[in-house]
Write a structure and sequence with these properties.
The protein is mostly helical. It has six helices and four strands. The radius of gyration is 17 Å and the shape is globular.
Length: 155
């Protein structure tokens, strides 16, 4: 049987939910705070995490992070960002796009709970993290999605 892909969901069936998603959420929140010119402090990070249902590193089962869409998360987070005096306007659809993009990037960048499958090999990430596992029959991508970001940071 040839396996063409694997589907992961957030419920902890295949990955340790908390070990994988809470650090990813913390990274995403810090990026969003920075985008809206809100000081990236522990207090602001905690307030933003609380707004989506992450309280003291625990995910509330009825919080938006546990089961809602990125749009719902943006709707829940917008008032918290505005209360922290965001210096840039908080547009719900723009925030949804940031959440979608940043969580996508973090899910590929973090390797805490993802192990190689069979003979798959990890593709190194420029930051020292693993981007993803690549089967031996496939070649690694020429550049990871964040390569441009790393080039501009180095310039």
């Amino acid at each position: 049987m040839k396996i063409s892909g694997i589907i992961f969901d957030k419920d902890g069936t295949l990955l340790d939910f908390n070990e994988f998603w809470i650090p990813a959420a913390q990274c995403v929140i810090r990026r969003i705070l920075s985008d809206y010119k809100i000081p990236v402090t522990d207090i602001h990070t905690e307030k933003a995490l609380n707004s989506i249902g992450i309280i003291q590193n625990h995910v509330l089962p009825d919080g938006s992070f546990a089961w809602k869409t990125f749009l719902d998360m943006a709707i829940d987070m917008k008032p918290a960002l505005e209360a922290m005096h965001a210096q840039a306007p908080v547009d719900t659809r723009d925030l949804e796009g940031k959440l979608t993009r940043y969580f996508d990037e973090e899910s590929f960048a973090e390797n805490k709970s993802i192990k190689g499958i069979g003979a798959a090999r990890p593709v190194p990430h420029p930051c020292g993290k693993f981007l993803r596992a690549v089967p031996p029959s496939k070649s690694a991508p020429a550049e990871p999605p964040c390569a441009a970001e790393h080039r501009s940071a180095a310039a």
